[in-house]
Design brief:
Protein name: DUF1579 family protein
Number of strands: 12
Organism: Mesorhizobium onobrychidis
Low-confidence stretches: none
Shape: globular
Strand order of the largest sheet: 3-4-5-6-7-8-9-10-11-12
CATH superfamily: Calycin beta-barrel core domain
Mean pLDDT: 95
Number of domains: 1
Number of helices: 0
Largest sheet: 10 strands, antiparallel, barrel
Radius of gyration: 16 Å
CATH topology: Lipocalin
Order of helices and strands: EEEEEEEEEEEE
Length: 172
């Protein structure tokens, strides 16, 4: 998987795996049902989870150097949409994953990483619950018909991780 290190000024340095390629996300092309499980209060010592269903449409763009998906669900009784844009840099062999949603209306700073075989890891920084955290996305496509996405936060520079989101995919 991609590896990360921290520079003396706290910036993330990410290295691609040897197997990283522009085809890493090809398994997601098409339409999906998603069962989501999210930690209600990340980084608060909570063990209370919420579950909800969503759908997603995924397609390739830029002659395979990118892709996007649209995520649809209802949160708090209101429609919610998310947009993911993934771009592959053939020089570094790294993917950057950007997210925008109907609450914020803007792209985030992106998470960077790669796949090593059937598992991928992607890292970035965010402020969550007032804390500067490292975010890790994990994609598991060992069974490409039922892939799993998960997310974790680390408030201690990557020494420990709190897993706070799981998405289990099945074909529509």
């Amino acid at each position: 998987m991609s590896a990360f290190s921290l520079s003396s000024d706290g910036k993330l340095a990410i290295t691609a795996s040897e197997t990283s390629s522009k085809n890493d996300f090809d398994y997601l092309v098409g339409n999906w049902n998603i069962r989501n499980r999210t930690l209600k209060e990340p980084l608060a010592g909570s063990d209370e989870w919420e579950e909800f269903d969503a759908t997603q449409e995924f397609r390739q763009i830029l002659v395979g150097l990118g892709n996007f998906d649209i995520f649809h669900t209802e949160l708090g009784g209101k429609p919610f949409e998310g947009l993911t844009v993934r771009l592959f840099d053939p020089k570094t062999r790294l993917w950057t994953i950007y997210w925008a949603d109907s609450n914020a209306g803007k792209l985030d700073d992106g998470k960077v990483g790669s796949f090593n075989g059937d598992e991928g890891e992607f890292f970035g920084r965010e402020v969550v619950a007032g804390k500067d955290v490292i975010v890790k996305f994990h994609w598991d496509k060992r069974n490409p018909k039922t892939p799993i996405y998960s997310r974790a936060f680390s408030a201690d520079a990557g020494r420990t991780w709190e897993w706070n989101w799981y998405s289990n995919f099945s074909r529509r």
